[in-house]
Specification:
mainly alpha; two-stranded antiparallel ribbon; 47% helix; globular
Length: 164
């Protein structure tokens, strides 16, 4: 196809045939254009027909978990940034979603802190965000619930610089 977006035709007869096929229906034109010398048939295909809904795939690692959490947080109006989440995750669990604290005051009371952001079960239950797993060891659910809690208590996870 030329740079100007116009199809080149070799003869008026082929041009008339292409116009008739287009009038007959885009589907017929798409099938026939390669037969009459067009370099590509995609130009005759409407965008609405070929457009597909894009879904975002997140990697199954800390970067992906944070990015997925941020997308969910944005839908629910929960503030926070990648850097704020990352900083707190590294301090709380070093990025281990299976981390559990069995030695602090919460653990002594029977509710150990769990997951990437070391959330206790009652806090997780109170700040769980719909659309995430109901599991404090699920990385995305843990991050999102912890950020929801931090937003309620401190304004944002970005304002948390120590144990919370």
């Amino acid at each position: 196809m030329p740079a100007n977006g116009q199809l080149r035709t070799r003869t008026p007869r082929i041009a008339r045939m292409a116009r008739k096929l287009t009038v007959a229906g885009t589907g017929a034109a798409v099938l026939a254009l390669p037969l009459i010398g067009a370099s590509t048939a995609s130009a005759a295909t409407p965008t609405a027909v070929t457009a597909k809904t894009a879904t975002t795939a997140y990697s199954d690692n800390l970067d992906g978990w944070i990015r997925e959490s941020l997308a969910i947080m944005a839908k629910h109006g929960i503030p926070g940034s990648y850097n704020g989440i990352y900083r707190n995750v590294m301090r709380e669990s070093s990025g281990n979603p299976a981390a559990i604290n069995n030695w602090d005051s919460n653990a002594a009371k029977g509710t150990p802190s769990k997951g990437l952001l070391q959330v206790i079960d009652p806090t997780f239950a109170a700040y769980h965000v719909p659309g995430t797993a109901y599991d404090p060891f699920d990385p995305v659910a843990n991050i999102t619930a912890a950020c929801n809690y931090a937003a309620d208590r401190y304004g944002s996870i970005d304002n948390v610089f120590g144990a919370y």
